[in-house]
Each structure stands twice: as structure tokens, then as C-alpha cells.
Amino acid sequence: MSSEVNWKQKWEEHLEVMDQVSAAVGRVMIGQQNVVEQVLIAMLAGGHALLEGVPGLGKTLLVRTIAQCLDLSFSRIQFTPDLMPADIVGTQMITADETGKTSFRFQPGPVFGNLVLADEINRATPKTQSALLEAMQEHTVTVAGKTRPLPEPFFVLATQNPLEMEGTYVLPEAQLDRFLLKIVVGFPSEEELKQIVTQTSSNRTVEPGKVADGALLQQIQATVRDLLVPDEVVDEAVRLLLMTHPSHPSAPAPVRQYVRAGAGPRGVQALVQAAKAKAFLHRRFNASREDLEAVAPAVFRHRILLNFEAEAVGITTDQLVSEILEEMKKGSAR
Amino acid sequence: MKRDDRLPGWLNKLVSGRNRIWKDRIWRWAKNGAWAGLAAGCGVLLLARAVPLAHPGLMAGWLGLLGVVGGCMVGIWKRPGWTETVSILDDRLDLEDRLVTAWQMRNAPGDVVALQREDALQHLQEKLPSLKERMPFRWGTRKEGISALGLTALCTLLLLLPNPLTEIARQQEKIRLVIEKERDAVEKQQEKAAEAAKVSPEMKRSLQKELAQLFEQLDNSETLEQAAEKMAESLEKLNQLKQKMEQEKAPAEEMLQRWMEEGKLAALGKEMAEGGGKPSASTGEAVKKVLSDLTPDEKKKLAQQLNELGQKWAQSDSASAREAASHLRQAARELAGNSPAAPRSVAQALSSAGNVMSRQQADEQIISQSQQLLQAGKTAIAAASGNRAALGGNTTDNRLTGDVSTGGSTSNNGAGTTPSGTGNGSGTGNTGGSGSGNGSGTGSGIAGSNGLGAGQGAGSRHVLVPWSRVSGGGPRDTVGGPQGEGTEEVGQTWSTLPGISRPYEEVYREYQSEVRQALERGDLPPEWQQIIRDYFSSIEP
Prior knowledge:
The complex is a heterodimer of chains A (334) and B (541).
Chain A: H1 2-28, H2 33-44, E1 48-52, H3 59-69, E2 74-78, H4 85-89, E3 90-96, E4 102-108, E5 115-119, H5 126-129, H6 131-138, E6 140-143, E7 146-149, E8 155-160, H7 173-177, E9 179-184, H8 190-200, H9 214-226, H10 231-243, H11 253-258, E10 259-261, H12 265-281, H13 289-300, E11 305-306, H14 308-313, H15 317-331
Parallel strand pairs in A: 1-8, 1-9, 2-5, 5-8
Antiparallel strand pairs in A: 3-4, 6-7, 10-11
Helix pairs in contact in A: 1-2, 1-3, 1-9, 2-12, 10-12, 10-13, 12-13, 13-15
Chain B: H1 14-47, H2 56-77, H3 82-92, H4 98-104, H5 111-127, H6 131-134, H7 142-160, H8 164-195, H9 201-220, H10 224-261, H11 266-273, H12 281-293, H13 296-314, H14 319-336, H15 342-384, H16 387-391, E1 462-465, E2 476-480, E3 487-491, E4 500-503, H17 504-521, H18 526-538
Antiparallel strand pairs in B: 1-4, 2-3
Helix pairs in contact in B: 1-2, 1-3, 1-7, 3-4, 4-5, 8-9, 8-15, 9-10, 10-11, 10-13, 10-15, 11-15, 12-15, 13-14, 14-15
Keywords (chain B): Coiled coil, Membrane, Transmembrane, Transmembrane helix
Coiled coil (chain B): 179-262
Transmembrane segments (chain B): 33-51, 57-77, 145-165
């Protein structure tokens, strides 16, 4: 009984921390609650997030604020076409000691941080982009034959501009698959815009303040992983994934027509992890089907590859995910 | 649906939820059943407009009732299991899979599991009072009500609108029932014949064969005319059987009559009439006394009579008659040779002859009974086929009449031109002999047609025309009394016989003319007129 009480106490403390983080971010960020929640979901699930939105929507501010709240080391990498992998992961440098003896010393790149902001990630060449692959999947970096661990917790929050296509390089599927969520940052409402203007045109600056640290965040992640997932939810997650595959019998007609390839196995893992994180944020001990439905667009958005016809017609992956969810609801009507 | 779900004590709150789901389900299934029943009933009523159905209204009613009862039964049988209840309640109460998780992990250990269970129960407790609002009883939509009303109205309309096909189907059913009834009567007579102790085995076999054949033919008959025709054919065969029987019986009866008329031989006649079993000592003495009183010529004459009877019976199909024949001939030989053993042989022969006569009597009775049965059946079939009105007479079930009936056959087999025109009737008959009774009844004719006979030449198609349509007086027939002395004279009225045989074309023209006149006068309802025309077209020669 005491362990149960302890666990509950811990759970409540962690929830309290997350509430404080949300509140702190909310003080700095005007609107975008949904984006904030999804970023936190990605962090709690131990995944990375790709934020897509036009410039000026506060993507960088959001990441920086979260880093400040959680007292995480923050690195920002501005991706440009001439950025080299070594500029990200670090390089071997020749240094001389006091005796004049020279030796190679590893100079860590900006990836060695708890929270890495890969700004405009699609502006770098695929070679440079792929420098992040190992870091994102293994949380390690290998330079000159030596593998170095990255500090934990480690998150990559990348941004990309959906409008500017000139001089950009589309992220390869392997890279995209490593992002837990792709979060679309929408344009703020009129009211939110007014608040933004009011808040940023004065001398008064809002500091979010430190709420937690990396170690605590890791504990919260462990708590999230402990949450329960009933078989029905796992079954639905698998069904959802299979429905993104055009060749699967359960796929709805639009998927068969417009999809070139469905989500991979990482998709279903991401779905359940994100559902757990969302359940935690909603003070539940179990992930639910409602959680799956809520996170499914962000999970599948970048994992479903559309065919030429879809692009010609203007079909988006969000529309297809909506179709899949509708079909799923019809099939599992209780 | 798992029936072996066990509800943990901490989930007792689910009972009320399950009962609500169950009631809702029963109602839903009952509605579905009622829909199906109503639709099926409506379908049957519509089908009855295309296909003859005897009782479409009754069928529709039963289908409706069956639908509702069946729907309720299915609903009751489909009681939701606990897993299903949990899933439905979780969904309806917006518990976000809390209940589902708690149910699934009801036996799992762990802190999170316990906390999750607590959380689920707390939310269930909060939301359960709103179950009625969240899960309202679905009585049905307005659209469903209107549709049901429309379907019911359609059914009522179909029930109330007259349907000529239904009348036809009812007639067909009536025909089937009449034929079945007669078939059953034939079967019973078959059993009765098999059980009759005194009847000779040969007669049993013949009757069994004939009645079995008739049973099968009736079973295959589709119309009353067919059934009547088959019964007439069987009746004719029974008549032939009876004639044969009478032919075998006649010499013995003639001999017996002569003895009774002659004073000296009356005692022998009495011994023979009372015969059966082994001759007793008193019989031997009586015979010895009679023989001692006879002159040699009288003895010779007696021997000749016994020999003649023996010769006739020797050709009989009956084994007992053949055995009696040998006794008679032996007695005749010994009597002619004035043998001292003659009285014993004569006594033996008389006993055997009496035995044979007794059997013949029993055979005749069973044939008569069978004839009465068939005649009554024929009358019933004729009545059912609507000929009763044409006959203009009262039909009486002949099975209620006395044992004695006249097998007044007017068979036309002789020339072969009219192969089997048969008219049988059971009429008023007074028999003077013992064991006789009064049989009264008014017969009816049938319109059974007979095909070509066994005779030479082509036979024409004949039908029986009831006497009521033929003017003239009835014939007189004479039959021998079964046990009586002398003959009985039986008077028959014309109405006791079914009719006479006349060419089909002639009869058809006559009937058709009358019907045409009736149609022209408008005596018949319009919905029947086309049916009658079609019928006459179908039977046109």
C-alpha cells in the first residue's frame, strides 16, 4: 500500500511539474496551446519533433522557453546549404599543450546539448541532415571512429518552412521517421495577435523561470512509460497503422488512391508512446483510444508518403489521417 | 460473447448498466423481429395474389407473431457479457478506456494498476447516475413508426381485398383432405381385412393387394376425379371378386336348398349348414340314419350331387375348398359303392363343406364391407367435387348402413366398346335371412371417365351421368341372402345408383350449354366467370 501511495505521490508531483512548465510556456507563448502540448508530448515520450510553420510564429521562442523551464542546455543550429556535418557533430582539432606537443582534441559540436534546435533543417544538404541520424536514434555521435554519448535527456526540435521551396532539400524518409511527431504550427488568431503585439512592444519581458531539470524530466519520462495500455488500444494502434498502407485490405479508398507508402513500425511505437504521454498530461493512468486519435495526425503526418496524384489534386496527409480515423470509428462503433 | 466472465466485487456497479443494455437489446431485437415478421407477412399476402395459398392471412399472422417472439428470444439470448458491458459503458459514459483497462487488468498486480482501478471506479461512480441520459432507451424513430404503420395498413388492405386465388387454394386443400380421409379409410379397411379371423388367406391376399394398390393410387391422386376413377376401378375389381365368390358358393347353396326341400335329406342339409370342425359322433349317427332311409337310387343321386360339388370345388383357388372337394368325391365314391364306411365319409365331407361355406360367407362379408367403404368414399368425393347439387339428392354415408348392401354392378365390359362404365349403389334392401339388415341411402354418381378396355376395338370415353339428369325408372336387382333360406329381392330406386355411362363429348356439351346460359343470365359472380370459362376450356374433349 505504501508503494502505491509513493507512486501516486510521485505521479502527482510530476504532473505538477508539467503543469508548471505548461503555465510557464503559456506565459511566454501567446496561444499555440496545442503546439505546446504536442512538443511536451514528444519530450515526455522521449522523441524528437519536427515543427512546420511559416517564419515568425514563435517556434524558436517555444523551444528556448521549454529549455529554460526545464533547465536544459540549449543549442541552436541554423541549417544552411553550406553547413557541414562536422559543424553539427563536432570535429577533431590539433591543439598544442604547454610543452608545445600537438595532439588531436575533439571539439564537440552543437549537437552536444539537451535540447537542440535544428532551425530550418530542410535548408541543409541531405549529407548534413543525415549527420543527425545517429544522434537522434542512438543518442550518440561517432567522430573519427570514436562514439561519444550525448547528454541525457536529448531532444531534437527541428523546424522547417513549408512555403519556401527554393534552395531547400526535402528530408529523406529515414530522417523523417526518426521524428516522433510532426507538429504544424498554425497562424495565431486575431486576439492572439493583439496579445503578441502588446506583449512584445513593451519593455516588459516575461521570464519563464526554471521549473525542473533534466534529471527530473527523465523521471517523468519513466513515469509515463509506466502507464497502462490496454489491449484494445494496442489493437487500435496497429489497425490505424495498417490502414495507412494502400495495399492492406482495411485501407480506406482515399488511402488506396493517394498513398504511395504507409507508415513503418516506428509509427505504431510512436503512436502508443505519444498516447501514453498525452494520457499522463490528462491525468490518466491509462492510454485510451481517444489519445490515439488525438496524436494520430502528428504521428502519421510525416510518415505517410503521398503519390503524384495526391500532390496534383492537393490531398494532404492530414486529410487522409482524418479519413482513416473516420473509417476506424465506423468499424469499432460500440 | 464470453459467458464465463466473472464480475469482481468491486465492479458490482456494472450490474445496473448491464441490465439496461440488455433491455435495450431485447427491445431492439423485438423491433427487428417485428419488422421481419411484418415484412414476411406482407410478402406472403402479396404472394397469395400470385400463387394460390389456402390461408395467407393466418400465415401472415403467424409470421408476424413468430418475428416478435423470435426477436425477443434472440434479444434474451444475446445477454451482454461483462467484457461487452464494460466496453459499452466505457464508451457511453466517456470514461476514456478507464473501465476497459481496469477490467482487462482486474487480476494484474502493481501500483499503477491499483491506482488506475481506483481512478476508473471513481469516474464510474461519478458518471453512472447519468447513465439514463447518456444511454437513453431507444423506442424508435418517427420514420420507423410511419413505416410500420404503412406496412400494417398494406397488410390490412391485402387481407380485406378479396382474393380469388385463395378460394381456389382452399378448394384444393379441401380436395386433398377428402382424398386423405378416403385413403385413411382404405388403410383401416386393409388392417381390418388382415385381422379378420374367418376370412380365407386367399381372400385376405387379394383384398390386401387391391386395397394397397388403391391406397397408393389415392396417395398419388391430385384431383377428385382421379380419386373417384381409381375408387371406381377398385370397386369394379371387388365386384369381380365377389362374383367369382358367388359362383363358387352357388353350387353348394343350390345343393343345400334342394336337400332342405327334400324331407329325407333335410337332416344332411342341416348338418352341412352347421358344419365346421371335425364331425361329431351325433353327426355320424344322423348321417347313418339318413343314409339307411335312402333308396339305392336316392343314394346314387346323392353320390352324384356330392361328386359334382367336389368337382366344382376342386378347381377353386382356395385350399380348403380343394380339400373339401377331395372329401366330397371320396364320400361320393364310397356312397356309390355302398361301402360300410360311407356314413363316416359323408359326415366328414359334410363337415368340410360346411367349413368351406362358412369361410365363403366370411369372405363375402369382408368384400361387402370393402365395397360399402369404397362406395361411401366415392359418394363423399362426388359430394366434395360439387356434383351434389347436380345430383339433386341427399347423400348418406353408406358406412352407417346395414351389413347387407347390393353390389348392383352395371358393368359394360362385354363388348369392349365401353370398357368400364361402372355404377354401384347401395340401396334399400330387405333380406329375409339371418344376419341381414336394412341398408338405406341415396347414392350419387361420379363423373369418372374410363379409358380403353381389354376388349377388342377402340373404346370411347364414357362418363357417369347421375340419374337425376337421366329420366326413367330404376332397375331391379336380385341377390342371394347370405345365410337366409331362399332369395331376397331387393328393390332399388334410381337415386341409389350413381348414374349411367354416357359418351364424354355428349355430357360435356350438355353441361357447357347450361353453364353458358347461367353465365349469360349473370347467375354467377363476375370473379368466378373467367375461372369457369377456363375450367371448361381445360376439359374440352
